[in-house]
Amino acid sequence: MAKYTAFNAEHAVDYIKELVKSELISVFPADATLTAYEFGDGNLNLVFRVADQYNNSVILKQALPYARCVGESWPLSLDRARIEAEVLINHGKLCPEHTVAILHHNVELALTVLEDLGELQILRGAQINAEQFPLLASHVALYLSRIGFYNSDFYLSAEDKKAKVSQFINPDLCKITEDLFFTDPYIEHERNNFPTELTEHVESIRNNDALKLAAAKLKAKFLSCPQTLLHGDMHSGSIFVDSKTTKMIDPEFGFFGPVGFDIGSFMGNLLLNYCAQNARITEQAKRRQYQTHLLTCLQDCYSQFEQHWLNLASSEATDISFANRAFSEDYLQHVLRDAVGYCGAELIRRTIGLAHVADIDGIEDAQARLAVQQQTLVLGEQLMLNATSCNNKDEFFSLLISLLN
Ligand SMILES: Nc1ncnc2c1ncn2[C@@H]1O[C@H](COP(=O)(O)OP(=O)(O)O)[C@@H](O)[C@H]1O
Ligand SMILES: CSC[C@H]1O[C@H](OP(=O)(O)O)[C@H](O)[C@@H]1O
């Protein structure tokens, strides 16, 4: 059993060489000369690209025993690498078209070897440049409905479901979400990060009892509602795209939680980009056209997600109680309300909490950036406050359009 050590590029090459020699991966020929470099830009882990002289390559991702963005003062369990690998295996079986392929994993070394998606782009960077992906909505809807449905009580036996819930207990990373999404933005906390000009607005959030109640309810549901095996971190940095392809990476925050969390996080990131474009695209017609595309993407994604789920429930539900259409509709109404609330929470935490988004932080003009931050806070507040009044998706879309105008 290999003892854990944090890798450098040389370790990464040696490790992959051994896999090639033992024929455990088939990406490289036997005469491959391997080189590696580290290029991780996420908050938590090391990411190496290992390549040969023929342009073949793989990604080696390794967990550190702490959060990379903060350092050793924030220890984190290495078990997150096992969770990430096992979520990728689970989601890869259910939706291989939209899940990065896992080629190998090693629990002791807390590492995974993944297909290299370097020919695609990370969605966040592409959306900052206002690039459009017409298939994104349907791909995300398919992925979230399939992973959601087939890991839920609609499909799994009660026994199987309980075994899977226990397989994916992920306390360290859930704690990050519990703190960063639902606690920190509503209290004074050293992890929070916002410009002094936002202080008055932040104080109004901290003094808003209705908003704090909404945040507490969303947190309680996140803690105690094991509906399905979530991706757990469905932001625009976890999605690789091109005009025909969409692939999800990085499900290390995966655990059994509320179905609405992933779709709410995804919609929140579309809206963060929507607001950021008010300061990025100067030409009004161009800006309107791009923002309409984002809104259509959000609406199509939610509508298709809901439709896929209803179809799956009528054809694949294994429990007679859940095969009932009225039950599915009631279940999805709650999913919608949760998703709207989580979407609002994502907007707020990405504006004043620890982890921001480049869509907004990269806006050079400080005044323009501030105006965007004010907008994302108001939008987030209103979505959280009105989430439970949304009876169906059309009411949600009308609410959203009224808030964006
Ligand atoms: N399969 C992959 N193919 C190509 N690049 C990848 C792949 N996985 C990760 N990366 C690169 O590494 C970066 C960080 O990866 P990520 O899984 O998000 O790490 P973290 O868990 O630290 O957030 C990504 O933004 C991307 O640039
Ligand atoms: C201290 S983790 C902060 C933040 O980072 C995670 O995203 P990623 O690992 O993709 O960079 C996640 O969204 C966490 O909330």
From TrEMBL:
InterPro entries: Aminoglycoside_PTrfase (IPR002575), Kinase-like_dom_sf (IPR011009), Methylthioribose_kinase (IPR009212). Belongs to the methylthioribose kinase family. Residues 174-267 form the Aminoglycoside phosphotransferase domain. Catalyzes the phosphorylation of methylthioribose into methylthioribose-1-phosphate. The keyword rRNA processing does not apply. It catalyses: 5-(methylsulfanyl)-D-ribose + ATP = 5-(methylsulfanyl)-alpha-D-ribose 1-phosphate + ADP + H(+). ATP binds at residues 45, 61, 115-117, 250-252. One of its GO terms (molecular function) is S-methyl-5-thioribose kinase activity. It comes from Pseudoalteromonas lipolytica. Keywords: Amino-acid biosynthesis, ATP-binding, Kinase, Methionine biosynthesis, Nucleotide-binding, Transferase. Its EC number is 2.7.1.100. PANTHER family: METHYLTHIORIBOSE KINASE. Pfam families: APH. Homodimer. Pathway: Amino-acid biosynthesis; L-methionine biosynthesis via salvage pathway; S-methyl-5-thio-alpha-D-ribose 1-phosphate from S-methyl-5'-thioadenosine (hydrolase route): step 2/2. Substrate binds at residues 233, 349. This is Methylthioribose kinase.
